[in-house]
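Our working data are protein records whose layout never changes between entries. Instead of coordinates, the fold is spelled out as a row of discrete tokens. Here is such a record, shown just as it appears in the course material:
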Amino acid sequence: MNMQPNSNQPQNQQSANTMHQPPVVITTKDQLYLSDMLNWNLTAAKKAHFYAQHAMEADVKTKFEQVAQMHENHYNRLMPYLQIQGAKQ
């Protein structure tokens, strides 16, 4: 089998067809997945916060608070993508 690039197309035309950045379009499937990710992070943040409130040991409480904060940060980083998409519709 010959694994060389198609010699009929010039090399510069092949590189011109390469996508350097993803398109600025969020498909319905992307939007649904982002929504799921938001829900997962919100649920995880709530659970971690609950466990932090009920932890008896200070180091365990601190770790749960850090986990809750991490999931809140992820939630806040994802939210603008859905807000932008909602504004375009």
About this structure: The helical segments are 11-16, 28-54, 58-88. The chain has a mean pLDDT of 83.
